[in-house]
Amino acid sequence: MSSVTGHSALVTGAASGIGLACARALAAAGAEVHLVDRDPKVLVLAEELGGAGHVLDLMDPVDALPAEIDVLVNNAGVQHVAPIHEFPAERFSAMLELMVGAAFRLTKHVLPHMYARGWGRLVHITSVHGIRASAFKSAYTAAKHGLEGFSKVAALEGAPHGVTSNCVAPGYVRTPLVEKQIADQAKAHGIPESEVPEKIFLQRSAVKRMMEPSEVASAVLWLCDNSFVTGTSLAVDGGWSAQ
């Protein structure tokens, strides 16, 4: 039996990719899942998992979402690939607000419930870009580094209340977010789109394959089941950060 069995869990960016894989894994482990996404198809997906779907753009207030949450998975994210001198300033600010600001607002929203129960799990899906950098990804790298730092603070504050906070930092995962980068990466690096997976995505990975979303979800469940692991980042990056 998993530690999440019988607990409530909320996953953002849950209509596809890593978020959907996490929601499925949590539901299979016996959690009551809440799936959040701006894509309305999250309602159908939530019904399939026996959970609840919430259509919400996380740039908006989160007060309408349930606060009685025991496991929060901050996963929602976007990507924009461009050199700094060409990067739209408003796009930079919006990406930080979505990936750091929304994670802060959601964490603040659910912590009183976790503290009252004396148990809670905060898991933030960052990236190898939360511990390493890549050219042309200034906003994404800044946001993921920021989320890593925020998680450490939440770990220190949450420890006396039985709440852990950790990050999962994957390399390139087979998701729509990654697939949409191919054209931009080809343009930024001046190479054909067909060469992007090998020359960009897997260049620094010792394991020469893309991760599957379910592998990230397994790491999330592992962190939920370990009460002494907090304030850390679990790199599941195929050896990228070993270099």
UniProtKB/TrEMBL annotation:
Lineage: Bacteria, Bacillati, Actinomycetota, Actinomycetes, Pseudonocardiales
InterPro entries associated with the record: NAD(P)-bd_dom_sf (IPR036291), Sc_DH/Rdtase_CS (IPR020904), SDR (IPR050259), SDR_fam (IPR002347)
Protein family per UniProt: Belongs to the short-chain dehydrogenases/reductases (SDR) family.
Protein name per UniProt: SDR family oxidoreductase
